[in-house]
Amino acid sequence: MEQITSSYNLFVDTSRSHTTGSKGDDFQINLQDAGVKAGDGEHIRMNLENFSMAKNFPDVNASNNHIQVRATRDGTTFFTNQVIRLSPHNYNTVSDLATEFRDKMIIALNAMTTFGTVTPGTVSDLTPASNATHTDNIISFTLLYDGTQLTNTANIYVQMFAEESDSFELLGGDRILGNVSATSTATSINVTVNTSSKKIYFACKYPAQRSTMPFIYVRAPGVLNTNIETKGLKDHKDNHKSDTAHSDILGRVVVVSKEFVQYTARTGREFFLDIHQKNLNFLRLKLTDSSNRPIPSFDGQSTSGNLNFSAVIRFDIVKTRNVQHLETEHYVPNVPARFSKGIVTQQRDGQNTYFKNPGM
């Protein structure tokens, strides 16, 4: 049966006292003088007791705003590939997100020049509408163009590569697996080019969402422990995402507020790591998203800015078994070994107990 023999609380604030290599979301702690160590039959258990940070990163960010656009004039002649990056903001409604997607698509198609000048359709051509009270949140819109070089086989391919970003989750499209520089005609959403009316219809396939990061993962890289995770959490590019691997995840925190991300343990056993090593001299705490990517931030925000967190981590020294040690002293003869042979313990007329003369 487990027995906790001692406990330590570690209070962490990553907004100050950075060591070389530390950042507000990737913090290194020297524990050499803390005395966190386990004895025979014991191990160290690390528990996440409390976590708090300001949510000062936008919902649409570098992890989910990347889209590639390819187009062909006649089915075989492709224009120069264009990259769309949605502006990193917190969008109030899906309609605002749809408007941003439409406006960035216009910029991308205008850069191809062969479409001529691309302009938005009517206000009613964009869904969900800004004043909609009931909607399925599926984004669609219509664009107009005045170019004359397109044929009936012209097409546009909107590509959302899963290895590049989570834009397919954000906008409601199909993920495309494989190399981000692939030249295939795979497409994530439905696009129709009508050369007679000079209209282009864009329709996403699934409901859009304003954010793609419901959790922040607190990791402790380099700590040998017993936790496991699916490989997709460790590396989103892994081909065996449903397989498991050793995990460095200490816990995950729900992003439930536009202002703060907070967590407090209720039982003390929600999130923990059972550590293999007997002495814990160094600890690294790192924040990631569900794809093991750093928290999206602006340049300098995690080093000299306000991207940081505070936490309380409890170390328990857990005894799982009693180790029995030899307590009886080894026999130590009181006669030197070189004199031990042929010693007469009792003399009888010059003979020993076995009636042998000395030395025989």
Keywords:
about 350 residues; mainly beta; Jelly Rolls; 3 helices
Unreliable runs, pLDDT <50, ≥5 residues? Answer: none
Return the domain count: 2
Separation, N- and C-terminal Cα atoms: 61 Å
Instruction: Summarize the helix and strand pattern as letters.
Output: EEEEEHEEEHEEEEHEEEEEE
The value of Rg in angstroms is 34 Å
In short:
The chain is mainly beta and 360 residues long. It has 3 helices and 18 strands.
SSE blueprint and pairings:
Blueprint: E1 3-13, E2 26-30, E3 42-54, E4 66-72, E5 82-85, H1 94-111, E6 118-120, E7 140-145, E8 155-159, H2 167-171, E9 190-194, E10 199-203, E11 215-219, E12 228-230, H3 231-234, E13 244-246, E14 249-254, E15 260-264, E16 272-275, E17 282-288, E18 310-319
Antiparallel strand pairs: 1-18, 2-17, 3-15, 3-16, 3-18, 4-5, 4-8, 6-7, 7-10, 9-10, 11-14, 11-17, 12-13
What report would you give on this structure?
The protein is mainly β. The chain is built from three helices and 18 strands. The strands form five sheets. Strands 1, 3, 15, 16 and 18 form a five-stranded antiparallel sheet that branches. The protein has a four-stranded antiparallel sheet with strand order 2-17-11-14, with no helix packed on it. The two termini are 61 Å apart. The model has no long low-confidence stretch (mean pLDDT 89).
